[in-house]
Design goal:
Low-confidence stretches: none
Shape: elongated
Distance between the termini: 26 Å
Number of strands: 14
Strand content: 15-25%
Number of domains: 2
Radius of gyration: 32 Å
Helix content: 55-70%
Amino acid sequence: MNLLETCRLAFAALTANKLRSGLTMLGISVGVFSFIGVMTVISALRLQIESGMSTLGANTFQIDKYGSNNFSSGDRSRFYNRRDIDLFQAQRFKALMGPEVPVCLQIQRGGIAGAYLDRKTNPNLGLVGSDENYAASLKYEIATGRNLDASDVEQGRAVCVLGNDVVDQLFPGESALGHIVRLNGQNYTVVGTLTAKGTAFGRSQDNLVVTPITRWLQIYSRAWRSIKISAQAETAATFAARQDQAIGNMRLVRGLQPEDPNDFEVTSNDSMIETFNKIAATVAVGAFVISAIALVASGIGVMNIMLVSVTERTREIGIRKSIGARRRNILVQFLLEAVVLSLVGGLAGIAAGVAGGNLVALIMHVALIFPWGWAAAGVGVCTAIGISFGLYPAWKAARLDPIEALRYE
């Protein structure tokens, strides 16, 4: 008997018991589905986060009252009692860092509606109060006109720079420069527009208007407002030193004593990605444990089904041995049946896991992805399950005495 004939017999035996084979494969599919689904979502989120982090300038870190990587509500709630970072502190910090370190001050209000003549936007614009370093810090480029400058901030001018989505809605086919737009009941003169930047974390980065932070605070008051600060080191080599310098300067402007802990958070792209990776690793371990239990149970099911199959086909094994089949042929046939059961179930689980994971990613407005590495690992695990749990039934079938097998009723 050649290998092709052995494969044909193995597939014929599986198709002869469709219900039993289907239920066995279903158990394996569930275990693979749970793990691949979770890893697909995690991989999609990680890719989106890394892409979103790339929208910030290189070697950039942020200083904030709350911090950007405190995911639990318990962490955030304990920061509410901290003092706000006010404009005076932020501007003093900026002066201490010096001109060689670009420092950007930011504060934002959402749910703003824009209007020009009879054209209006939905009330979903972000009105950003910032300074002359906003475009460079967030890696925006000026499409037309100019950026905000230091004199705009110093004098609190009613000027603004429009994001690309706002330009498309209020000024389709015409220049926005020099026109006056109305935002939340206030008039602003357009001095520049930004090039399109696309989406990050499922949200448009072009649906915004940037105005001097001093003007923003005049309109919306300075009470209960905490400013977010971004700073950019010259190179990767100076990043750590600049971050340490920033912490020292921030402690100085906050009036902290040497024994006082920091009452602000310093975060960077790497720290946010590291925090996400820790959470993702915990979730992955949980999914792995659940999947491992399901797969071991499924493997026991494969062994049980194959042992039943050996018992049912004892006379068949005896006949095949009597006409020349060797132990190796019988072993390969039954082992192949176990591997096929596991592989088909695993492939179905992988397909369902990728589809389910991407469905969740789609709902979360995250880019779709196919986790090739995890899919390959799933195929390998299912093959190992088939071999491990199918080896004993296959060995038992191969060891049957042909005379005793022919006598079996």
